[in-house]
Design a protein that fits this description.
single chain; about 450 residues; alpha/beta; 2 domains; 7-stranded mixed β-sheet; 17 strands; globular
Length: about 450
């Protein structure tokens, strides 16, 4: 567990004397029971992607619920938060019901707040407003999304949670690459702004002493952007994540990140101060969770210490029975809908692989070629001449051998098999492109290592 003792963060209370303000920067030692620090636990996930069923390293929603239950039983001052992509690009059990089972499971667990991720916008802003937000019982945040017509914030920017008299403020932000990750038509009514600028604007409001625009004793950033690998350099260098870590003001006490599916836990010095703050990400798919442990002075409302850790989730906690029932009900529906036969194959259609067996999104693959061929076939009546399939949109292989325990003969392709390959709300479109535009499209597929 990484620690940063002796932190600052005075609450802006008018009656607080100058002496009290000076003393508030000192960790309380030997305080009376009445003045004992308020202990707050914040447990985090990111990029859950509807992995409600346990599978391999993915613990599943029931064990996730058991983890939150365990922390709340040990400390009622526990908050459960996320850094986006709770839904979207999900496995079939959740995907086939528009991720409602995932939303139901997170509601049952009692998620408190989450930033938006890019996948929340797979079906556009109208779907977010009309379906996702009404269904989710937690606050969804994005300070850097703006209404294109008015310039006003498009969604809730921050959330305040009062825990044993201490106000914890959460500010949300989503990757600035959002317009290139979802259909531009679906988010045509919003613009995406600079993350550090938006976060600092809101965090400053929460720390300016003006109750009319919200005040927080502790500020935590939930951001759907992350480091490309677990190294400290990836989180602090000249990268999108480095810009956030180095550009967010000192009144942000911790950064919970996601998007890149990496696990890391850093304690990074804040420029211009003598303190550090946690920057963490819990990987993906409910394989791990993050934990922030905070101590706050109950008199001065100052954060006096904070520590962080990222821990494995699978097998670590008993499943929550109510969440397990939600998952079981979803599985029953998915089994019926997914069993419909849609075709047959005579060989495997796999994605490209790295030498270590992991997915290679920079390589040509039989599955990518097959999907592109299908897209060309499906649009031939519209005089299509070529089709494109981006490798990042292939999320499962199509194998000839039927799964163990299946009654289907080898080579059978079910609706579940096909849907798992592209678990998105994509629409197949045609358009006119010049040769120069086609060249540009192909060149844009190459991404830095």
């Amino acid at each position: 567990m990484k620690n940063s003792p002796g932190l600052r963060r005075p609450a802006f209370i008018a009656a607080l004397s100058a002496l009290a303000l000076a003393l508030s920067t000192v960790t309380v030692v030997g305080a009376s029971a009445a003045d004992a620090p308020v202990n707050i636990d914040i447990v985090t996930i990111n990029d859950f992607h509807g992995r409600i069923e346990a599978s391999g390293a993915s613990a599943g929603a029931a064990v996730l619920g058991g983890m939150v239950d365990s922390y709340r039983a040990a400390n009622p001052n526990t908050l459960f938060v996320a850094a986006g992509d709770n839904i979207g690009a999900s496995t079939f059990t959740s995907f086939i019901q528009d991720d409602q089972p995932t939303i139901d499971a997170l509601n049952e667990i009692g998620m408190d707040v989450s930033s938006f991720g890019n996948h929340e916008f797979d079906k556009g802003t109208a779907d977010v407003r009309n379906r996702v937000l009404p269904a989710a019982h937690w606050d969804y945040l994005a300070a850097n999304l703006y209404d294109k017509a008015t310039g006003d914030p498009a969604f809730q920017q921050y959330s305040l949670k009062v825990v044993d008299g201490i106000t914890v403020g959460f500010v949300g932000a989503v990757t600035e690459e959002l317009p290139s990750l979802v259909s531009p038509a679906g988010i045509a009514d919003i613009t995406v702004g600079d993350i550090p600028t938006a976060v600092n604007r809101v965090a400053d409001q929460l720390s300016d002493g003006d109750p009319s625009n919200g005040e927080a004793d502790v500020v935590v950033l939930l951001v759907h952007e992350g480091a490309a690998d677990p190294s400290l350099a990836a989180a602090t260098g000249d990268t999108p994540m480095g810009r956030i870590v180095n550009g967010v003001d000192a009144n942000v006490d911790a950064i919970v990140s996601g998007h890149t599916h990496q696990q890391y836990n850093h304690m990074i010095p804040i420029a211009g101060t003598s303190v550090s703050r946690p920057v963490l990400s819990a990987g993906k798919y409910g394989e791990a969770y993050g934990h922030l442990s905070l101590q706050v002075d109950p008199v001065t409302h100052q954060l006096t210490s904070i520590s962080s850790e990222v821990l494995p989730l699978a097998g670590a906690f008993p499943p929550d029975p109510a969440v397990a029932q939600i998952v079981a009900d979803a599985v029953a529906v998915a089994q019926v809908k997914g069993a419909v036969k849609v075709g047959e194959i005579t060989a495997d259609f796999n994605r490209a692989e790295q030498s270590n067996g992991s997915e290679n999104r920079g390589g040509e693959s039989p599955l990518g070629n097959f999907v592109a061929d299908v897209q060309l076939w499906a649009t031939q009546d519209l005089s299509s001449q070529i089709a494109f399939m981006n490798p990042g949109g292939l999320r499962a292989d199509l194998t000839y051998a039927s799964p163990a325990g299946s009654s289907e003969p080898d080579g059978t392709v079910t609706f579940k098999d096909a849907a798992a390959i592209q678990p998105f709300a994509n629409t197949l479109v045609t358009m006119m492109l010049t040769g120069a535009q086609i060249k540009q499209v192909l060149e844009e597929q190459w991404q830095p290592a």
